[in-house]
Structure to design on (334 residues):
């Protein structure tokens, strides 16, 4: 029955009004249903949660199961309660690598790219303790000589072998900065003595070196000063045959002499070479047995106080290495 302003409602309390009884029963039913609905809804939510069939679960698949202890990473297994387990540093949580390998530095490119230079630090600091070994005779083609020698020292005891290794390492750094591949015939502490002069020559030959420089310092009487470059003489005897390297070795020596004098401020030797700083010899196994362009450089006289002051200076040794390097670049790089 519809109630509006045109039809006034029956008087209350009338037992004869059937609509009144129907309205009372309907109101009671509505109240009952309203009270029951929350309980049904709560039951449905609980069922969906326990069965994993809710809308989110149906979209993402079955609910994930806890990982077994064996399937966890060491960082996850060892994590303390309440802490955040770490994943392996080499993988991401998805199993893919989380970091990429560091790129390999590109080789330095310069005028000596593709060139190989062998640097031979004269003598060895251990030779003084191994005189029997270094005194053994080896064949250098023109004759036989000692395997190696001790080298000289300054009056204060600074060894030639210390000097030659220091300059050689500086020289290697300078050459590598120009793109060269550099091979040292020996390294500090790598061997107790030597190597023999025959092995030093062989290292340069087997490396197919574009240039070989043997670094030395002289040990003559005081008053004799300056540097000089030793060049191979033309020899052919036994295993020695320098015919193919005499010309290029002289060019290498001339290039080094000019750059060494300019960079260090040192003058050519005043006691040999006629002021040219160039000397030719046929009695050095390192030159006789070489098949690659090769020279020796005597950077100064360790027995002269003025020269010794330079040779013992790190700053001067750096200049010496740079002067030699510049000569090699001029020879190989043009």
């Amino acid at each position: 029955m519809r109630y509006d302003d045109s039809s006034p409602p029956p008087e209350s309390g009338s037992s004869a009004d059937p609509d009144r009884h129907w309205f009372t029963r309907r109101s009671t039913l509505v109240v009952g249903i309203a009270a029951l609905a929350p309980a049904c809804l709560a039951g449905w939510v609980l069922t969906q949660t326990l069965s994993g069939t809710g809308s989110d679960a149906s979209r993402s698949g079955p609910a994930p199961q806890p990982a077994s202890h064996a399937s966890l990473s060491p960082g996850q297994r060892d994590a303390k309660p309440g802490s955040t387990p770490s994943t392996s540093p080499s993988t991401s949580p998805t199993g893919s690598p989380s970091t990429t390998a560091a790129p390999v530095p590109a080789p330095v490119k310069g005028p000596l790219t593709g060139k190989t230079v062998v640097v031979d630090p004269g003598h060895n600091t251990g030779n003084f303790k191994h005189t029997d070994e270094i005194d053994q005779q080896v064949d250098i083609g023109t004759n036989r000589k000692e395997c190696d020698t001790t080298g000289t020292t300054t009056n204060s005891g600074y060894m030639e072998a210390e000097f030659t290794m220091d300059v050689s390492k500086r020289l290697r750094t300078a050459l590598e900065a120009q793109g060269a591949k550099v091979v040292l015939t020996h390294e500090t502490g790598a061997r107790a003595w030597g190597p023999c002069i025959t092995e030093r020559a062989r290292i340069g030959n087997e490396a197919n070196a574009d240039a070989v420089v043997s670094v030395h310092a002289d040990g003559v009487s005081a008053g004799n000063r300056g540097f000089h470059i030793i060049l191979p003489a033309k020899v052919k005897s036994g295993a020695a045959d320098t015919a193919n390297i005499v010309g290029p070795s002289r060019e290498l020596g001339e290039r080094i002499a000019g750059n060494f004098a300019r960079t260090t401020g040192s003058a050519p030797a005043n006691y040999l070479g006629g002021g040219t700083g160039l000397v030719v010899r046929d009695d050095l196994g390192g030159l006789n047995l070489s098949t690659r362009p090769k020279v020796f450089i005597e950077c100064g006289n360790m027995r002269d106080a003025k020269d010794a002051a330079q040779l013992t200076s790190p700053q001067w040794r750096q200049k010496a290495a740079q002067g030699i390097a510049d000569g090699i670049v001029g020879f190989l790089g043009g």
Remarks:
- Residues 102 and 111 are 27 Å apart (CA to CA).
